[in-house]
């Protein structure tokens, strides 16, 4: 992907594709429900398509036309043994949440993913599932993993060592199959889409402070789900509009669930001019139109409980920080090292290659902003968020930026380059 610095600001009204986390969960719960589930605004990105493929491989009737997905629910015990290993591609959410569901099945299964997935830690999910009675094996607890039938699971009380919505969700999903109550307590609030969606499918999920509990067995009722735009995708447009002078952009219909909206708090604390017009005030997954204008940004410290509320947005925040006056410190974010790539190392190296003044911490990074950035050759490491973060940096830098392995972008944001071009950016994908 080739990006040139823009000569004028980004302008216009746009919309980002559907929320990735909500799209995955809608397919999973729809597949396990009774009756039909219809999803609109579904993210037709590679990760969520992998989730659909896994459930089709287990016999579920799922039809998709663009962003509309129609699922004939198989019921909690209606999945069939897959004929081949389930393949999740690049999707950590798919493999971790599926481990919870597969642990409750009466058939054996094998689950695998791409080279990045094979390096990501699965013990954080497999260990608590084993406490429930699940039988999961794999070399070094890495994918490929084999799940053998275990008889009925037993509910547990589990204190998560790190705030992870994927681990929390895997345990709640396994809890649907377990005898007794499964309770999960997290150290800080992580995204709560699983809890919200389980309740909307009719499951009596209890929530108290940082604890969520479910008592098995449950019955899920199919329903209609409208997926809002993904704030994690909107993050790249927000930062681009803030750092490119003379920009004014409206992003319509973005999900602003408070467990996801830390990016807005941080960009505003940096001096970002962002207006949020909430459209739905009474629903559990609030949706808003967001207006953003170019702003003089200043450095901030990002740490503590806000980190899980913006974990996937840190690459975008690091780019905003490089264009801000003063120093930004990001810490308590060691989780970034075990995402699709080591995102701390990727951001430090890439920003340095563009002339930024950055240093790496064990659990984050320090960005001394305000240096004039120039275009550079950046390796995305096959990580969609790294590729998009540097596309945005390249738009505000002088000269040309080339991003290697940018074909990972549709993992979460199909149409990224096209949307940027419509807003006035000079972005070209290889082969265009
Ligand atoms: O549950 C989810 O949908 C996700 C949870 C987060 O991962 P962790 O649970 O590992 O923090 C996040 O980084 C990922 O993009 C999506
Ligand atoms: C970490 C991410 O996703 P996953 O864990 O599902 O691969 C992401 O989308 O930034």
Automatic annotation (TrEMBL):
Primary residence: cytoplasm
Residues of the Enolpyruvate transferase domain: 8-420
Molecular functions (GO terms): 3-phosphoshikimate 1-carboxyvinyltransferase activity
Pathway(s) where this gene product acts: Metabolic intermediate biosynthesis; chorismate biosynthesis; chorismate from D-erythrose 4-phosphate and phosphoenolpyruvate: step 6/7
Catalytic activity from the UniProt record: 3-phosphoshikimate + phosphoenolpyruvate = 5-O-(1-carboxyvinyl)-3-phosphoshikimate + phosphate
Alphabetical list of SUPFAM superfamilies matching this protein: EPT/RTPC-like (SSF55205)
Enzyme class: transferase
PANTHER family from the UniProt entry: AROM/DEHYDROQUINATE SYNTHASE (PTHR21090), PENTAFUNCTIONAL AROM POLYPEPTIDE (PTHR21090:SF5)
Function as written in the Swiss-Prot or TrEMBL entry: Catalyzes the transfer of the enolpyruvyl moiety of phosphoenolpyruvate (PEP) to the 5-hydroxyl of shikimate-3-phosphate (S3P) to produce enolpyruvyl shikimate-3-phosphate and inorganic phosphate.
Keyword annotations from UniProtKB, A to Z: Amino-acid biosynthesis, Aromatic amino acid biosynthesis, Cytoplasm, Transferase
One CC-aspect GO term: cytoplasm
Residues of the active site: 312 (proton acceptor)
Highest taxon listed in the record's lineage: Bacteria
One GO BP: aromatic amino acid family biosynthetic process
Protein name, per record: 3-phosphoshikimate 1-carboxyvinyltransferase
Compartment(s) where it occurs, according to its Swiss-Prot or TrEMBL record: Cytoplasm
């Amino acid at each position: 992907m080739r990006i040139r610095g823009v000569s004028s600001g980004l302008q216009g009204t746009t919309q980002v594709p559907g929320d990735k986390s909500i799209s995955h969960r809608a397919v999973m719960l729809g597949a396990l429900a009774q009756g039909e589930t219809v999803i609109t605004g579904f993210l037709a990105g590679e990760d969520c398509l992998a989730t659909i493929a896994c459930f089709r491989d287990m016999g579920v009737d799922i039809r998709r036309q663009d962003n509309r997905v129609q699922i004939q629910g198989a019921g909690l015990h209606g999945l069939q043994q897959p004929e081949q290993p389930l393949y999740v591609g690049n999707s950590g959410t798919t493999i971790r949440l599926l481990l919870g569901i597969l642990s409750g099945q009466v058939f054996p299964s094998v689950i695998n993913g791409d080279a990045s997935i094979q390096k990501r830690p699965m013990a954080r999910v497999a260990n608590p599932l084993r406490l429930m009675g699940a039988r999961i094996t794999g070399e070094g607890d890495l994918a490929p993993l084999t799940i053998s039938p275990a008889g009925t699971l037993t509910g547990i009380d589990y204190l998560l060592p790190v705030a992870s919505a994927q681990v929390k969700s895997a345990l709640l999903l396994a809890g649907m199959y377990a005898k007794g109550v499964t309770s999960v307590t997290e150290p800080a609030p992580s995204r709560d889409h699983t809890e919200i969606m389980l309740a909307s499918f009719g499951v009596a999920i209890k929530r108290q402070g940082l604890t969520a509990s479910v008592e098995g067995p449950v019955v899920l009722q199919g329903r209609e789900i409208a997926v809002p735009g993904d704030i994690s995708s909107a993050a790249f447009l927000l930062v681009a509009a803030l750092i490119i002078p003379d920009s004014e952009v409206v992003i319509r219909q973005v999900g602003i669930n408070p467990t996801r909206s830390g990016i807005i708090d941080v960009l505003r604390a940096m001096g970002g001019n962002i207006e949020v017009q909430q459209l739905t005030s009474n629903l559990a997954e609030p949706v808003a139109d967001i207006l953003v204008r170019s702003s003089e940004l200043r450095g901030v410290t990002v740490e503590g409980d806000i980190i899980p509320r913006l974990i996937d947005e840190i690459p975008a925040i690091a780019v905003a920080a490089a264009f801000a006056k003063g120093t930004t410190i990001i810490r308590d974010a060691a989780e970034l090292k075990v995402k699709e790539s080591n995102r701390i190392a990727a951001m430090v190296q890439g920003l340095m290659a563009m002339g930024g003044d950055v240093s790496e911490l064990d659990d984050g990074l320090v960005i001394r902003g305000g240096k004039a950035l120039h275009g550079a050759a950046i390796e995305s490491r096959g990580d969609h968020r790294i590729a998009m973060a540097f596309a945005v940096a390249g738009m505000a830098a002088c000269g040309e930026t080339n991003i290697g392995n940018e074909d990972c972008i549709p993992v979460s944001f199909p149409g990224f380059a096209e949307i940027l071009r419509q807003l006035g950016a000079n972005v070209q994908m290889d082969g265009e």
